[in-house]
């Protein structure tokens, strides 16, 4: 029973964090998604496991578990492919552009699923934000409901909690 207590406490803190952000006058957390698209060459294909290993133009290698196997039968070793990954996220503003806010930090370690970032630009009409992580990488998130990002402005600090599930589709490149 004692082993479950830290998990329960951490879960309660995660659930309460959005309420604290909202109470501090910051925009309420909102849902969004990040889409990554890239072209590469197939190093290997595993039809049974629905996985593909792809090499990019710089020689980088990445393996993907395909969640949409519709085109998998058309994928061949050495062939050129287009990879599309979509990952859902919840975005919470932790500090305003003026530096004020609740100063809350994620109770989870800063892993690939939780990223602290600064809003660089935002298109309020589409809900698309350019975010810059602590390591300098710039990535984009599109809010599901543009009206919910109305209170977000460049310079604000956000915590992006990515969903564990990633939707990946691979198709032969045209």
UniProtKB/TrEMBL annotation:
Residues 1-23 form the signal peptide. Keywords: Signal. This is Uncharacterized protein.
């Amino acid at each position: 029973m004692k082993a479950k207590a830290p998990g329960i406490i951490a879960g309660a803190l995660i659930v309460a964090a959005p309420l604290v952000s909202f109470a501090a006058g910051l925009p309420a957390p909102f849902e969004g998604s990040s889409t990554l698209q890239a072209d590469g060459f197939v190093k290997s294909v595993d039809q049974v496991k629905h996985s593909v290993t792809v090499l990019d133009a710089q020689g980088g290698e990445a393996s993907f578990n395909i969640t949409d196997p519709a085109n998998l039968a058309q994928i061949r070793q050495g062939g050129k492919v287009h990879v599309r990954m979509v990952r859902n996220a919840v975005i919470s503003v932790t500090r305003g552009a003026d530096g004020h806010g609740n100063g809350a930090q994620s109770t989870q370690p800063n892993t690939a699923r939780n990223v602290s970032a600064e809003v660089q630009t935002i298109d309020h009409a589409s809900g698309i934000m350019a975010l810059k992580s602590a390591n300098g990488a710039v990535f984009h998130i599109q809010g599901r409901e543009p009206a919910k990002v109305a209170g977000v402005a460049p310079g604000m600090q956000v915590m992006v909690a990515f969903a564990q599930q990633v939707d990946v589709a691979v198709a032969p490149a045209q």
